[in-house]
Amino acid sequence: MMRKLNSAQPIIKHLAQHTILVDRFLRDEDRKQAMLVIKHLIRSRHLSEWHHDSGLRYWTLFSAKPLSDRSLACAFGRLSFWQENNARSAISSDDIRNYFPQLFRHGLPKGYFVEQFQKQARLGYAKVDSCSRISRIVSRTLRIIDQHRSRSAFRELIDQEQFAITWIVATVAKQRRLIKAFRFIQASGIRLEVQVNTDLLDIIAPIPTPIKHPNHFPLWI
């Protein structure tokens, strides 16, 4: 669940961790105050506001240009994944200190998450698909598995079945195909999961915007 974003510091911290802040994820009880702070941060050139062709309104740290569709899909897919489960969140330095002290003390790259189960926790790594072939996803998954198994701190978590790899895809059909393909991967100790977020399709392949030709015939761009 998204923390309260009703002042500048948590908004800046959120963007540093998640890349984007999405309009639709603002909590109702925080929205009025959050929007006042966001407008102030835009005026002071700390934030930039963008409107994607899919209708998604989002904010980033100040930038001269919006995120590419691929980068936006990746950030949005992961943020949505954190949002849909109260026990799941992007990993923080506190999480590493409390649950995974054997890992790097200064944090992990974006994409790692923690799922809390009472006093235990599982570490996960989330990847967002942007229309890659199934064979390419499988190859990338095998590389990710090998990379983590080669490091003793991760190998310990894998041996304890405390590590998961999650792919986030745009369609149920692709989810089914990927789950089937994963059955042939030898990933002992690693949980392989596939989640669906249909909103990704609008970002990866937005419907073109109609424009009017001088002769009033509709064209599409």
Blueprint (SSEs and pairs):
Blueprint: H1 8-18, E1 21-22, H2 28-43, E2 47-51, E3 57-61, H3 69-83, E4 88-90, H4 93-99, E5 112-117, E6 120-128, H5 134-149, H6 152-159, E7 163-169, H7 172-182, E8 190-196, H8 199-204, E9 210-212, E10 218-220
Parallel strand pairs: 6-7, 7-8
Antiparallel strand pairs: 1-3, 2-3, 4-5, 5-6, 9-10
Helix pairs in contact: 5-7
Order of helices and strands: HEHEEHEHEEHHEHEHEE
Distance between the termini: 37 Å
Relative helix content: 40-55%
Give me the secondary-structure category.
Answer: alpha+beta
Rg estimate, integer Å: 20 Å
Instruction: Tally the helices.
Output: 8
Shape: globular
Low-confidence stretches are none
Extended strand count:
10
Main-sheet strand order equals 4-5-6-7-8
Notes on the structure:
With 221 residues, the protein is of the alpha+beta class. It folds into two domains: 8-67, Arc Repressor Mutant, subunit A (Orthogonal Bundle); 80-204. 41% of the residues lie in helices and 23% in strands. The chain has helices spanning 8-18, 28-43, 69-83, 93-99, 134-149, 152-159, 172-182, 199-204, and strands at residues 21-22, 47-51, 57-61, 88-90, 112-117, 120-128, 163-169, 190-196, 210-212, 218-220. The strands form three sheets. It has a five-stranded mixed sheet. The longest helix is centred in the N-terminal third of the chain and has 16 residues, at 28-43. It is globular and about 50 Å long. The mean pLDDT is 87.
